Amino acid sequence: MSIESRKFRDDINGLRAWAVIAVIFYHFGVSGFTGGFVGVDIFFAISGFLMTGIVVSSLETSERSPFSILKFYMARARRILPALIALCAFLLIFGWWFLLPIDYKLLGTHSAFSISFLSNIKFWGEAGYFDTQSHEKWLLHTWSLAVEWQFYLILPLILMAAWKVRPHRAALTSVSIAILVASLALSIVITPLYPTAAFYLLPTRAWEMLAGGLVFYWLTETS
């Protein structure tokens, strides 16, 4: 059975469940889950796998149905924004009654950055992810969503450009590998020097999503 023929992936849903459990157990200090934040890395790889699949499959069938980057963006927005806006609205209503004015103002700022998918940049400029102060930020988890969205914006542009130069799967794979290597190398260099930036920003995280994309290439080439 090919990847495209399955509307719902039970295996991917299972991986998501394990990733969520690992992160939750880490934050609650459950023994044996000190590295539970690796669940975020799993989510990035899954996102790369799925998004690469959508874009590449659309490009390869573009003669029958042209790939629309606007439709791609709108589909991602319809999937993510309603729940994110509802969450921010609920927290703002709840915070109105239970937060001090200075904390409520900060929550409003974080909500705006979250909805605009720039919260990773905002949190990067504030305290580090593992600092005590960061654990008190209600929307801290949206940093990873911002990274994913930024990847969603850039990925189809790069793959479309590669496809225009050479409309072949090999060209897409080569470009993905080249960017993965560059991002991984940047992560290795930057992490010891600027760990907070390496944690939050797309250039040092892109390789994880591209790795998921390479899994898509490999599975569909060998299936």
Report on the structure:
The protein is mainly α. It contains 9 helices and no strands. It has helices at 10-27, 38-60, 69-98, 101-115, 119-125, 142-165, 169-193, 195-200, 206-222. Helix 5 crosses helix 6 (142-165) and helix 6 (142-165) runs antiparallel to helix 7 (169-193). The radius of gyration is 19 Å and the shape is globular. Residues 1-6 have low confidence and may be disordered.
Short description:
With 223 residues, this protein is mostly helical. It contains nine helices and no strands.
Beta-strand content? under 5%
Please compute the radius of gyration using only Cα atoms: 19 Å
Average pLDDT over all residues: 89
What structural class do helix, strand and pairing data support? mainly alpha
* SSE succession: HHHHHHHHH
Q: Helical content, roughly?
A: over 70%
Specify the number of helices: 9
Shape: globular
The tally of strands reads 0
Enumerate the spans where pLDDT stays under 50 for 5 or more consecutive residues: 1-6
Largest sheet data: none
The span between the termini is 8 Å
